[in-house]
Design a protein that fits this description.
By secondary structure, the protein is of the alpha+beta class. It is 25% helix and 31% strand. It has 2 domains: 116 residues, no CATH class; 194 residues, 3-Layer(aba) Sandwich (Rossmann fold), CATH 3.40.50.
Length: 314
């Protein structure tokens, strides 16, 4: 993913590897956008008064916008969305600094623009192992990054362990990354798996509890994969000894997908966007799928766990 200056001051272009997903930003400089995507340090605090507009190539994002279909207040900004049009994010000094690294308000505006293009942004991992390619969803802390790290320890490759962009093309679901490195929680789980990847290039700490890892420097990064199966991770405390795999009803899987993206964009008030997103979600839940709770055996015997996962899904 590239970030470049746009034509006017304090503006930027976001160019993912998916050629149809370029976005334009007004009111956000390239270095600030890079920081929001975890690709650099934020040059100034987020919560200073500003108005950001996000649109597609060909949009006049500096023009006075129309009446929004939805106004949504989040802790780090107020988002104004008009169906089929650029999004606005209004930030004041009363708003909170965002959770690291992406402001939720900005991500909502970005996701709406991609939905206009028939793309869905997902909080998910995309993994290739033993020539099998699967998408992994689940709430924060469910174990997506741990599962992705265990795949790397087994010789697998990643598109992403966190945020990715998904589109339907030629009857196949294609995933491309929104971040070019892993964000690992520091602790016994990641330390145990990193011992199996002695050449792993850890970067500077993101903050006290997380650390970046550049898996692409290992030659383990993929620019894109087509998804063949879907795995839904659910957390459990304490973790079981053995990883559990069960079938999951379609309605539960659909709800899990909504929780992995900007569910607000599925609203009937955003007809241009929601039609695309519902179609993508329906194609996803039709993939072979399972619900899983990762056990401690993922750390001790990742090969055996992955053999079970692949046998169940394929």
């Amino acid at each position: 993913m590239k970030i470049e200056p746009a034509a006017s001051p304090a503006s930027a272009r976001l160019i993912p590897s998916d050629a149809g997903s370029e976005l334009l930003f007004h009111g956000l400089a390239p270095d600030e956008l890079a920081a929001c995507l975890g690709q650099g340090r934020r040059p100034r605090p987020w919560n200073v008064p500003r108005q950001i507009q996000v649109g597609l190539p060909g949009d006049d994002i500096q023009n006075e916008p129309g009446t929004p279909s939805i106004e949504h207040e989040l802790e780090d900004g107020r988002v104004l969305i008009e169906s089929g049009a650029p999004a606005r994010v209004n930030v004041s000094d009363a708003h909170a600094a965002p959770e690291f690294p992406m402001p939720k308000s900005l991500m909502l505006g970005i996701s709406q623009q991609w939905a206009r293009r028939g793309r869905i942004s997902l909080h998910a991992a995309a993994i290739e192992l033993h020539r099998r390619r699967l998408l992994v969803i689940g709430e924060s802390g469910a174990g997506k990054s741990t599962l992705a790290l265990s795949a790397l320890a087994m010789g697998g490759r990643l598109v992403s362990d966190d945020w990715l962009l998904l589109r339907l093309e030629d009857q196949a679901l294609h995933c491309t990354p929104l971040r070019d490195r892993m964000l690992l929680r520091t602790g016994p789980a990641s330390a145990t798996l990193l011992e199996r990847i002695p050449e792993s290039p850890l970067l500077e700490p993101a903050h006290l509890e997380k650390q970046w890892m550049d898996y692409r420097a290992l030659g383990r990064g993929l620019p894109e994969i087509t998804c063949e199966a879907l795995l839904y991770l659910v957390p459990a405390q304490p973790r079981p000894t053995s990883t559990r795999l069960t079938s999951v009803p379609v309605a539960e899987m659909y709800a899990a997908l909504l929780n992995s993206t900007s569910a607000l964009l599925f609203s009937n008030r955003l007809r241009a966007e929601s039609e695309h997103l519902h179609q993508l979600a329906l194609n996803l839940v039709r993939l072979p799928n399972r619900k899983a709770t990762c056990g401690t055996d993922l750390l001790d015997e990742p090969k055996r766990v992955w053999e079970r996962v692949i046998d169940e899904l394929f």
